[in-house]
Each structure stands twice: as C-alpha cells, then as structure tokens.
Amino acid sequence: MKLNVGQLASAVQQNCHISDARHAGDFSLCVFLLKMREYYRWEQDIPLTHTLAREEVGAWMQEREQLWDGLDASDYQPLPLAAGPVDPFEVEPINRQLVPEGYVYSAGLGRFCKPHFFLGRLHRHERRAGFSIYTSSCEYARDIEAPPAMLLGRDIFVRRESVRRFLWEKIEESRFNKNNVPMQHVLRAYPFDVDIDAALEGMTQNETETMTLHELGEGMAGQVLGQQWEKMLLALARSKAEIMARAVRDLIADCSITLPELLKREALSSLHFYFANFTGMRKHLYPELGQAYRRWLESNDLRALHHAAASGKDRWQEAAGRMLAFYERDGAQVSDAIVQLLEPRPSQ
Fold first, then answer.
1. What is the pTM of this model?
2. For residues 316 and 288, what is the distance between their CA atoms, to the nearest angstrom?
C-alpha cells in the first residue's frame, strides 16, 4: 500500500481533538482563549500579521466545543500507514515509515500529562550528541497547544512553524508590555521596522537553534536522572511539585547546555530572548540568574552570566538528586517534601 497523507493527517487530527476534549479544562480561561485564537489562526491559515475577526473566532470556538462533546470518552485511534495501522504512541516505528517519505510525526505527553500529537513536513534530520533531531516546517495536524520543541527518549522534535507562531505571540505581547526590557533588546536586533518577514525569519532560525539546544540539554539531563525521574513526575501529576520538578530539569538543561553554548557563541539576541521568557517557576526558583542578566545589561560584562550558569548547573543537579532520594523514600507522597526543599526562603 502507498502512504495516504490526507488519510493519515485526518487520523492524527482526530486524536488531537480527543486530547483537546479531555484536557481543555486544564487551562485557565484566559490561557484557553489565547490558545484557541492561535489555533483558529493556524487552522484557517490566516497570516500572522492579519487581525482576527472576533465574531468569526467566537463562532468557530462554539463549533469546536460542540465537536469535543463526547470525544473525551473516545479512545485514541491507530494511524493508517502503508504497512498497516500503528498505535499513535509508537513514534519510532511510525517515523521509520514517514521520514523517508519526507514527513515527521510525534506523540508525547506535556504538562498535566496532556498528549500532544502533530504531523508535519520534514525540514531537516540530523544527529547531535547521540540524539536524533527532527525539524519540521509545515504542520498538517496539531492540537490546541503546539509545543515548539519536545524531547521523546533520544529523539528531539522541533517545529519551525510553531516556533514562528510562538515568536510572533511574544512580539505582539511586547507592543503592550514595554516593561519587558529583554524583549525590547531582542526587537532592536532584527529589522522589524524595515522588513517584518525577513526579521521574523531570522529570529525563527536563531530561536529554533536555541530550542534545539534546550532539548539537547534536557536529553542529557535525562540520561543522568534516569527513569526514576519520569516515574516521579507521574506521581507528582497536577501538583505544584510537578511544576517545580519540570522547572528544575529546565534549569539543569539551560545551565548545562543552552546558556553556556549561547555565551560561547556570543549569541546576544538569543540571550536577550531567553531572559524575555525567563518567567514563572524557573524565575521563582533561581532569581540569581535574572540578577546576573541585569548585571550584564548594566556593565556589558557577561562574566556574571557565565558564573550563574556554572553554579546553577551544580546547584540544580544536586537538588534533582535530593528530590529522587525523597521519592525513593516517600513514593507517591513525596510532593510536600519537594516543595519544602525547593521553595526559596524569604532571605533569598
């Protein structure tokens, strides 16, 4: 049998709908509305620079919620491939069939264990440090949330279309939030006033590489942390401790690989973009990294960032080791111990 890409895309999209039906309630109302607007733009193939019609978005959202009704009880469907149907979570055998045809697929669990499915055109396939990196371009199927990059075992999936959309959202936000100083530095590094498309393409290329570095860092951290870390995350699902644990692994990745490599290359615009998005739990746990960034802005000296990355690598690897020791001791009841370990003290 020959691969039927249209049929395959429909099957992947149906699984996306099932995932969305099960997990749409995980988002706050504000986040849900923002993600739905972006999802509508993708599905209707509306250019990023075009304004969305509010009434049309509203009508589409009602139709989508009607589509979701009842789907939360449905099972995920096998994917129709040339060699026969395959379980949608069997990513490696699926890609063994798709990659030679110029396509790439992934299915992984995100925050709150929400499955993320996507099918796209393969842009590039490479190997680095023992990891396979699949970079896609056009996306044919996706769910409400489109992670720009994701690590699955020793495979890294980077989605250029989702990177581009993510960057545009940040650019749009910066127009209303002039207090995001790092983002203002980013925008000055690209010719947005002269050629928006060229500027966005250059930014997409640079930040696709940054996201690849982060996933490589996560992959290398995973080799050290082992399978117990993944079991611990499942035990912590939907808790503050889970958010903290994911932030710790992010910090290990960034202090080990992302930041040292950006500093080595003197990729200044990417460093600014990193700190434009250094928010949430990572910032809460490691405020010293943000302080080092501000010292760079004040002195034009990167040494503080070099030091913060080096010390952060040791600090967060040690913290991760202690978390795993607590998990081995307490099992599924480990949440409180992790929060107490990681919550910054008032003096900090």
1. 0.91
2. 13
